[in-house]
Design brief:
Number of helices: 6
Largest sheet: none
Radius of gyration: 53 Å
Shape: rod-shaped
Order of helices and strands: HHHHHH
Amino acid sequence: MTISQIIISIVDLGRTRDENDRLIQLAMVCMCTGILAADVLMPLGFVIWILYLIPLLMSVWLSYRYSPFFTAWVVSGAILIGSFMTARTDPSDLPNRAIFILITAIIALLIHEIQTSYASLEKEIAERTIAQENLEDLILTLEKRVADRTLELSKVNEALTNDNAERRKVETTLFVANQKLNLLSGITRHDILNRVCALLLELDFVRELVQDS
């Protein structure tokens, strides 16, 4: 298992953010203690000091805003303690440690900038998520309104269709009734004409009888 996998497993152990912070801090303290012991027992200079960058980089996962600077102070203290605990005769040891402490401060500043940018990015992502949720709610509301309006228009269209069907039935009924009335009128007129003709014939017959007498 690589160091990055170990760090990620440590970060994901806690159930809450506070538990994660405590676990990360514990891991950082253990790493600083082990590196300090290695620095005292094996004076390898920058080879050992570079390992201090691991807990410094781990501070980016802490929720505290200024955790990189605090970690840099701890690392600087560990480097100075290592210098005091070792009896070195090399005169360049202390300047080298001072240079590495300066590098540590610069890296802590960069990590703080990264942490700030990451926090800003998280805030922007949260705002965009909220905006997207609001947009989805608005889309659902609009879809519901469109569905209700469509249902209302469907009911109105169905009512108009039923009204047209009723009107067609009434028109058909009126047309049939008109035809029946025309037929009845024709039959009645023909019957009346037949009766009038019969009366005229009878009148002519009576007139002829009168003239004969």
